[in-house]
UniProtKB/TrEMBL annotation:
Residues involved in [4Fe-4S] cluster binding: C109, C194, C280
Pathway: Cofactor biosynthesis; NAD(+) biosynthesis; quinolinate from iminoaspartate: step 1/1
Keywords linked to the UniProt accession: 4Fe-4S, Cytoplasm, Iron, Iron-sulfur, Metal-binding, Pyridine nucleotide biosynthesis, Transferase
EC number: 2.5.1.72
SUPFAM superfamilies found in the cross-reference section: NadA-like
Cited PANTHER family: QUINOLINATE SYNTHASE, CHLOROPLASTIC, QUINOLINATE SYNTHETASE A
Protein name per its UniProtKB record: Quinolinate synthase
Record organism: Aliiruegeria lutimaris
Domain of life per record: Bacteria
Role of this protein: Catalyzes the condensation of iminoaspartate with dihydroxyacetone phosphate to form quinolinate.
Organism lineage: Bacteria, Pseudomonadati, Pseudomonadota, Alphaproteobacteria, Rhodobacterales
Amino acid sequence: MKDFRLPDLYDRVRQIIPAPDWMLFEDDIEAILALKSEKNAVILAHNYQTPEIFHGVADIVGDSLALAREAVKVDADVIVLAGVHFMAETAKLLNPEKTVLIPDTYAGCSLAESITPEDIALLREAHPGVPVITYVNTSAAVKAASDICCTSGNAVKVVESLGVPKVLMIPDEYLAQNVARETDVEIIAWRGRCEVHELFTREDVRAMREAWPGVTILAHPECPPEVVAEADFSGSTAVMSDFVGERKPARVCLLTECSMSDNVAVNHPAVEFVRPCNLCPHMKRIDLRNIREALENGLHEVTVDPAIAEDARRSVERMLAI
Ligand code: 13P
Ligand code: SF4
């Protein structure tokens, strides 16, 4: 068998990364590991990053909530965010004195694109006195115009923490509708959609149950409500991962972004993963090559306009305090 330069690392991922692919990755992985110590840098990677990033070079991995929480604790000069732009902005808000890099500035998000601070001003006019809860998948300017943030991992808790009968929950319409089913608080939604999760249908779920008897189906709450209703369980990417670890279903399907199943499968070789997934084109802009370039050349530094940073940070910190 071929001698790998990083045999221990390859041992962890061998069942999901073919040897020829790994051999192409090794050079960048070695360089990134060296650059991290040289620059005193850490890599925060979202659960949707590819396995060679997630298992090969990341220091901290998780869902949006975990990445925000861990960003506060980071003890390094440089944070590289292997994820999308709003995640890097959140890390910067929580670490104003650190250098935060995103390897590709075009790594956006359809939800973040769907709403502006001006839209929030109009919503506040139409619903005076109703607090605005903003999903973290938004720009810092939108966070600054909001009262508090939430993620898919804590949305119900955040809604109920406010002690009010009605809230505005923006911008993900499906997340808002899915949360509405779990609380008595009235929720007014916006029409934003995740372009990855909106593609799953109830028919997909039914077809999967027929084709894969006994499969346990987990749906991300950015999926349409009828998909979540048809699934066995719903939760953020971290909650899905924990579900697989704790319940160890014999056969499971994660209705979410494609890399998620790969990353979870590494830790649970006995679980069979059925994979009718959708790719996020924004998450997939990040690869080993541009992470390496980001570390080598300090690219691309994320900054937040000081005029909005304080208010945006307040919305994120209110969420983290819950
Ligand atoms: P979570 O990892 O917080 O569940 O978010 C999913 C997502 O779509 C992030 O962009
Ligand atoms: Fe945005 Fe959806 Fe991609 Fe997450 S998966 S970054 S919510 S488009």
